[in-house]
Amino acid sequence: MAKKEMNKLTWFLVPIGVAINFIGGTIILLLKLPIYLDSIGTIIVGALCGAWPGVIVGLISNILTAITSPNNLFYAPLNMAFGVFAAYLSKKGVFKKFVPTLLSSLGFAFIGGVIGALITWTLYGFDFGSGTTAIVVLPLWKALGSPEVQSVKFFIQILGEFACDLLDKAITIIVCYFILKAFPTRFLSKLPLGPVYISDEEKALED
Amino acid sequence: MDREFAYSYNNYVKYGNGWKDMNPISKLTIAVCLGISSCVIQRWQFGVVLCIIGTLMAVYTKIFRKYLRSLLAIAIPLLLLTTILRQLQYAHTPGFTPLFNLLGWQWYKEPFIMSMNVAWYIIGFSSVLLNYFLNTEMKDLMLALENRGVTHVASYIMLSSMQSIIDMKKSADTILESQKARGIETDGNLIVRMKAFFPTLGPILLSAMSGTEEKAIAMDARAFSHEGGHTYLRVLRPVPVWEYILDALAVLVMIGSIAYAVLRAMQRI
Predict the structure, then answer these.
(1) Alpha carbon distance A194, A10 (integer Å)
(2) Class of A2-196 per CATH?
(3) Please, what's the b/e burial string for B247-261 (b: 16 or more CB within 10 A of its CB; e: otherwise)?
(4) Dihedral pair phi/psi, residue B67, rounded to 5°
């Protein structure tokens, strides 16, 4: 019964996670900041509820953005992978301390780089994408003497995606860290991965 | 009058338009099959044809303004950036045919066709999908899926997500205004705007998250977890045979496109 209750709360958190993904982007737009912050909800739900809820938040977020911009559907696997990675790191206790949390942004940016590059590469006919990454990718390619070897070009695309994603993911992760810290113990204890964030003193008090 | 109102819930959902009135799953099948065809063919001609069909459908279904706004937001940057990128990328590649000279900048034919193929297949894909999303109420799609056996939890998650976005946007505006009123600067240089971000986002997220528990209890009190059959205030009309035929045609187009793409790839090898 207790497990069922927990699952139910998870289902109710998924829509909130999706809305957070949107709101991060909206506030960024209102404040005219040069980043995306569109995966805060995915990472928080992944970290608190596990991989599957994180995947669902990522998928639904991209389906809903596809209503006005259908090519976002192609990038759904990226957001879904963030959910899985967040759950994995959460289980390992990475988000409990600031420095490991900040370092984990390298992992998120790496996932963003590899999966993002794979999607962009396929989408643009196995060539460079024309998004913001082109600002990094094209000069880098030219600087290396414009090699026509596909594997080298793909590697440059990965580097470009990684570089563009790093700042975004670092800020996303810092936001997530402070939000996870701010949750009350009473709420955390009802979520599948919530107990990870309850300190030993608080656990002892509960006992 | 009251009886008429009550019985109106037994009527099929109708919008008075052939495409809009189609079953959401039939429409989805057509949109997805045509979208996939555009992706596998990757030819500008096919993308342009899809875009023309999509635009005519948008006029017919009276969503033209919304459709055009979204399509242009995708198409213009995509066409411009992809064309410029490919021209810059292959500017000094030997063997390409000169196309024209733009104020001392030589353009080539092959990279131009490459960029058109990429941009137009994505525009074609976006056109059909936009037509689908703008002509389909999400609640109808979820109802159609529930009728096919998908759990009601999926409907709740999808529809609640849409509602949560609207609610949270309102609360974001309120909080941003409140923070401005208490002296937080939201205009200025990057660091000033960055500093305004955290006190805006924090309260929204925490209040939304902590409200979840009350929502869960409220939904349970309304039999959300009841395992038995559900009742609905909307009824979708039974799927007519011609919709199945249209779906089958769309699937055939998709299979044909995949076969064409495979044959082309084999010829290249």
Answers:
(1) 11
(2) mainly alpha
(3) beebeebbeebeeeb
(4) -60, -50
- Residue pair A105/A85 in contact (Cβ under 8 Å)? The answer is no
* H-only helix segments in B42-63: 44-60
Interchain proximity B176–A127, CB inside 8 Å:
no
Do the chains contact at B210 and A20, CB–CB below 8 Å?
Answer: no
Instruction: Show residues of chain B in contact with A15, CB under 8 Å.
Output: 156-157, 160-161, 163-164
- Give the residue extent of every domain in chain A: 2-196
Q: Rounded to two decimals, what is the model's pTM?
A: 0.87
H runs (alpha helix) in chain A:
2-30, 40-49, 51-65, 76-91, 98-123, 134-143, 150-182, 185-188, 200-206
CA distance B86 to B96: 12
Residue spans of beta strands (DSSP E) within chain B? 98-102, 105-108
Count contacts between A and B (CB, < 8 Å).
153
Summarised one tens digit per residue, pLDDT across range B216-246 is: 888 888 888 887 778 888 888 888 999 999 9
Contact B89, B107 (CB under 8 A): no
3-state secondary structure of B107: strand
Q: Kindly determine whether residue A31 and residue B169, on different chains, have CB atoms separated by under 8 Å.
A: no
Q: How many residues does chain A have?
A: 207
What is the tens place of the pLDDT at every residue in A92-139?
999 999 999 999 999 999 998 899 889 988 888 888 887 778 888 888
Q: What is the 3-state secondary structure (H, E, C) of A141-161?
A: HHHCCCCCCHHHHHHHHHHHH
